[in-house]
């Protein structure tokens, strides 16, 4: 019998949905730009079965991939499970076999040594392939048109590490997929790897190095010549796992580091420069660029932990004010003999899930978009279970002029990560649209909204009603039809 727990992670807007679907021609209010020809992919964590240990965190759900296919002003919807090895083993057993998030000590004996990944964090397109990604395991390859799962890849045996990030970047100059892994020699190891993969899917080179302490290395940044990593004290140990504590805990006694690694074959750990900073929390990055000998990294930073489900290692209570993230600029000058990075706040909006026009990854971007918490707006979540602060606002920053815009989703709605869609492959930066899932917490439904990218304040120009109940989601990406041959042909 399947009975999901009556806990916040599985009730209200988070009630399990588990629907694979094909729906043609979704209902649209407003007008979808005819130039939008391609697909928006996004992923949400969904538990296939009730959690083995009675309750769980959303980050441990199985990946469910949604595809919104755009052509001629119409939108089709397809949704499929990312069928990881874990999903298949549990499906065959008819129940959960894997236990807590990144704690193999809690697994059923029958799955010892199996890949624990859930492919629940990002849906990423590169070289015409769709990757469903979870940072504790290799990349899962899926068909970008049918969403059928092909399986994990080790890039023809060339990826020697055990993991591949959920936040790779595509270098617009070379077309290479730039990615990394942490815990590369096994869970809790300090070993990291950097990988570069050609548009044809060939792993070109890797770089191995160690971080000063084991940490959640969730995202990174590239520039034409460097890869930049933020080491922050969301850490773990075998003692934590043996005690059955959440995998990650936040250690306010540790410094942070900005690692700068030359992006070229033959780089070794000795070539990496480590710049120190004070204790703080980081997760996602907006972008980075080179300015002469200076390197500039823009990322949301909080004074303390922003993830209540990964608590303070000394059990200090969660502090939502100290856990508020603000877009921040870290700078280092490679020509100076500096030991610390400089830090300066760029915006007073509480923002996370930063995005850019990805064609400017690694170069100086003018525009950025974020999910913003605006505590000045009223919240009445009738029927919603979301506690605490609500991600209620889409934010926009113009880093050249300092202009900011906000669009508030209303008192009973919250939003998921925005994604930029260029008007055409060679359009100017920011010339295009934002697509974004909006959670209707009261009716437990979802809409996909479309905004003019540099005029979000005026509100959506189209609202696409999603006829399937979605849940909170994580990351997604747009692929122009020309990036996926089969999408282009099946017109
Ligand atoms: C993050 C998300 C994850 C994860 C580790 O946002 C870090 C950060 C959805 O899964 O496993
Ligand atoms: Fe992420």
Automatic annotation (TrEMBL):
Its cofactor is Fe(2+). It is an enzyme of class 1 (oxidoreductase). It comes from the Bacteria. Pfam families: RPE65. GO terms for molecular function: carotenoid dioxygenase activity; metal ion binding. Binds 1 Fe(2+) ion per subunit. The keyword Iron applies. Its EC number is 1.13.11.-. One of its GO terms (biological process) is carotene catabolic process. The keyword Iron applies. Belongs to the carotenoid oxygenase family. This is Dioxygenase. It comes from Sphingobium jiangsuense.
